Amino acid sequence: MNNSTNGSLIAAIEELSEETACSYEPQLLLEWKMWFVGMLGCTTALVSIMHNCILFYTFNSSKLLRRRNLTYLKWISLCDIFVSLSYIAIMCVQVYADYFKSLGLFILWHHYLVIAFTVSNITFSSSSFLLMAATIERYLQSTGNSKDEENPEELDNPVSTAVFYFLSNHRSLVVIMCFVLGAVFRGTVIFEIVIVYQPDCTGFETYYVTVSQLTEDPLFDMLWKFWVRKIFSVFLPFVVLAYFNAAIVMNVRKTDRDQTVKTLILYVTVGSKGEVTRLRSRLRTVTRMLVMVVCTYLFSNILDVIIAFWENIDPVTLTAHKEFYTVTSDISSFLPILACALRLPIYTVNDREIRMEVVTTVHVICRRIFGILPCCSPMCKRGKWATRGGEIDTTYYMPKKISMRDATRGRGMSGLIMARAQLVSRKDSFDSTGSVCIV
Q1: Is 282 a domain residue?
Q2: Contact assessment for residue 288 and residue 248, using Cβ atoms and an 8 Å cutoff
Q3: 3-state DSSP assignment of residue 49
Q4: Cα–Cα distance between 355 and 361 in angstroms, integer?
Q5: Is there a single domain that holds both residue 309 and residue 342?
Q6: pLDDT at 134
Q7: Cα torsion for 152, 153, 159, 163, to the nearest 10°?
Q8: Which of 140, 185, 133 is nearest to 158 (CA)?
Q9: Quick one: pLDDT band at residue 121, thresholds 50, 70, 90?
Q10: What is the pLDDT of residue 335?
Q11: Average pLDDT of the chain?
Q12: What is the domain range of residue 360?
């Protein structure tokens, strides 16, 4: 659940609290909400839950992917599961209760609303912090790969080096810190809404939601909710991810351009065309995946950032146009769920290893649950990726080693040029390949 959902829900709660006792007002634009939230939103959330369950299981069970240190991706997928579940529990169930006039769903929704609302806020914010950590680590790694050995002074940046080694060597600690920050910045919502039971009323008038007295404190409302919570959990992740992902794309382009020049020497001297093709393919893969990740995040959060800014600058005008506020809040709440559902297609389309492991996971799950889809393909048997003993067959993703003696034998000066370019490009190519999917 994003910030616009929080704002619209709090606004609705404030309106309900102003109503007289034993009164109930259904949601605005109920037909629109049923089609958009109840059908499209619920379907997308279910797809997101299925996709991210597959991703989380794959990242945990695959020996190959565990060697690639995809810790951030694994926990982001877990956060996406809870965010999607919370969307169904908070948004969809409320629409179903009003549309079908189901008193049971209405009472159930009020019983778990506070917990679901808190969990959704914490996991959504934690997911943003995890994505920030992964992006910053990938940026520092791509910056390090782009440094030239002939300019050693560019490598001496103690701050960047310390941050990179901390993020890369203490990923478990960083994950814990991200969840702690999410709980600190968003966990206070559990004290901001209260469920009120009216025993003298009947039907849908029995329960209503209101804001707590804590939100009436001007210091808490302005200092904490805006200057601390919204800036650090809404605006800051948006700006940081936009900047660092753009910087990553430029650094990767520069690095692979230099590697392509070195590889062209190989092509001229010995006619090795395969390495040029592999480097160009990796450049396209990294660039495409980074662009798709940043575009989905920016697209899914841009409306939320606008509404959050509008709520604090001119809330009167926004709440005066209730239909417009309702529609934009529903769309803004739906877009992050769509982004969660698109993570699996983005990873599998751009990364061959993740694609093969996901296909294997789907085959294994289907065989165990339904007894179908027999393991008849090399992908399912992991034949291309692992040996019988479980060791990774590196011939499929690591270049073959070449020694200086073999490279220079019988080729004179051209052999020396070829060997130097080959050894440098081997190192750079392994570094960039091993970190393709950190973001």
Answers
A1: no
A2: no
A3: helix
A4: 10
A5: yes
A6: 86
A7: -20
A8: 140
A9: very high
A10: 94
A11: 76
A12: 353-386
